[in-house]
Amino acid sequence: MKDHTHLAENIIEIYEKKAHVWVRLRGTYLYEKVWLDRFLALLPQHSNILDLGCGSAKPIAAYMIEQGHRVTGVDSSKAMLEMARQNFPEHLFPECNWIQGDMRTVKLIEKFQGILVWDSFFHLSPEHQSAMFQQFDHFSMQDTVLMFTSGPAYGEQIGDLFGEPLYHASLSSEQYTQLLNRFGFKVIIMIAEDPNCTGHTVWLAQRN
Q: What sequence ranges are listed for the domain Methyltransferase (predicted)?
């Protein structure tokens, strides 16, 4: 397999440079709603949710905030976090906390009832994805709900974001299942290339 390590490590720089054009391209249509509703249905009211790779906080974090939940958003891109803070200033939205940091290394004292890693986890190398389950474990409590997007099968792919090579990777379904089980998560539902969510492969699990 060709070594794409340099491309994986360049993801943060790409999103920093392309943050505003990416946000305009992404728009605010919530095509993830069916999955977010499944995720939120497993949580108590007014839960603490950790959104890893939160971007500008719109539309995903915005939807969770509208449903009455408290959101801690983490993103490596300073430009993305600036937009999140503009969209949801912490002095007006005390239930929000926006943290610039790398999901692989960010240190948080708080435990969360929900952990969401949507369209960000799959930019990590397979090795770093495996290691992230220790982070998930650290941020979790009893009954924590975890939802993340992945690829449909093991491998690496290089996409394109406004002329920049955009790295994606995935473990196999068997590997994800083994890691979830190892860290005490039971798979609630997993759909590969969901036609009702623009072809996303989504995992929804809950801590035993």
A: 49-136
